[in-house]
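Troubleshooting: if your tokenizer reports a length mismatch, compare your output against this known-good record of 239 residues.
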Amino acid sequence: MKKLLVIWLLIPLIGMGQTKNVISSTRVFSKPEKIAEFEKALAAHAQKYHTGDWKWRVWSIDSGPDAGGYMITEGPNSWTTMDGRGDLSAEHTADWEKNIAPLTSGQGAQSYFEFITDLSTVEITDYADKILINHMIAKPGRIGNVRDLIKKIKNVWVAGKESVAVYRAVASGDPAFLAVTRLKQGLKEMDESLRGPLSDRYNTANGAGSFDAFLKDYADAVERRWSELLIYKPDLSSK
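Known-good structure output:
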């Protein structure tokens, strides 16, 4: 009986010890004629219902196939914390359905991502207001190869003092990694003249001629890739 009591007492500690490395991401799209109303309703919802572990960071998507939309990120949390959240309150759900959903177009998208510490050059919560997301969709059976490619290009990020957070998509469509470059110096980091051509930097970091091999391996492992620029919107986010 004593052993059973000890186990019960340890359960909360086990949950507390789990790594908070899971990000929930929601993409929504405002009706073009309702942007001002949408943003007002979204900000009110975030600031009333999303606090603590469930704080929202809201981003405008400024380029790429989802340009004009909004990305809402929640976390980081552990899977255990998320599992224990339970159902959202009726009031919370009603606010979304009544005040936000009618102002949106399309279904949007919901995804989960795990932060990969050993592939990243920055801590998970070391944020920036402008980010560049590169989505890498793996060919069938090649997700491990994509991970190996990221390990090699991390040498370039480290040499260039780039802040890059790497995530793995979980139960969210195609097998993929996301490399999120946090532009601490702003958009000027996208100017090639700041650090030099990627090919030169890669060869310096990984050996002469290695970039050509990287491109070949990339073509063999990656089904497709796409990138986008996002801007953080503090006025729409949780306070």
